[in-house]
Amino acid sequence: MRDAFLESTGRMLQKNPDSVVVLADIGVSQFREAGLFKYGGLSDEYSDRFINCGIREQLMIGVAAGLAKEGFRPLVHSYAPFLIERPYEQIKIDFAHLGLGGVFVSVGASFDASNSGRTHQAPGDVGLLKLIPDFEIHVPGHADEAAVLLDEAAAGDGRVYVRLSEDMNSTARPVEPGKFHVERQGSSGAPAVIAVGPMLDRVLEATEALDVTVLYATTVMPFDSWTLRDTGASEVVPVEPYLLGTSAAEVSGALHDRPHRLMSLGVRNMELRNYGTLEDHIEVHGLDAESLRDSISGFLAK
Question: What is the CATH number of domain 2-163?
Answer without folding.
Answer: 3.40.50.970
